Amino acid sequence: MEQGSAREGARPAYAPGVSPYASGNAARAPQDRVPEQARGEQAGRERARGEHTHSEPPAPRAVQRHSVRGQILDALRAALVDGELVPGQVYSAPALGARFGVSATPVREAMQRLAVEGAVEVVPNRGFRVTERGPRELAELAEVRALIEVPVMLSLARTVPAHRWSVLRPLAEATVAAAAVGDRAAYAEADRAFHRAVLTLSGNEQLVTVADELHRRSQWPLVAGPVTRRAELLADAAEHTALLDALIAQDLTVVQALVREHFNGADG
Length: 268
What we know:
Keywords: DNA-binding, Transcription, Transcription regulation. The chain is mainly alpha-helical.
């Protein structure tokens, strides 16, 4: 089930200010009208206070860089899952920036985030090396995930009504759709979305956060590992719908078997 938000950049909607001289100026006495210079000074004070008028809309807040960083982070995560970033290889921020058509700065910031997550490591004066992982690490991640998720899902199977499980059906179907076209990056995102939705029913936000991080790490490619084939993705995705059916039926034996098999299958 295991094959990877964020996004920033929306501009706030400002309500335009109303000038006390917007209409009816012709009816005012000359001495009541504001001279052109005074109006300019007033506009300058309004801008300094963050106010604005109909004739001069406000400048957008500076959020573009963070938006770009988020998009680059998503693109790098997809490249990791797809195997485009090869374990053991070193990639420089300028080279990756040229690849994505951006400066090195948002790439470097995104890579620093991936370094915190353990996906890459910093190589001084060179760039970032993609972490090399072996089968043992993947097996350990599967074991830890099973220790966390199996008891939670068994508990939920006993208490959550059928109609609440049915709401998750579109998320399971999304994993099947991504698997059908062999899109590993899209499958990874859909897979994690399904698991998050299931675990969210526990009401434990910390559990959801920890499990999602373990899930993400299980999706990174192995050193010289085989590329996940579409048939394997389809088989993995089919387990989601089977799991939902078992949860709805409150079949605890099948739930436990499916979850354990799911974690120990291709890509965890």
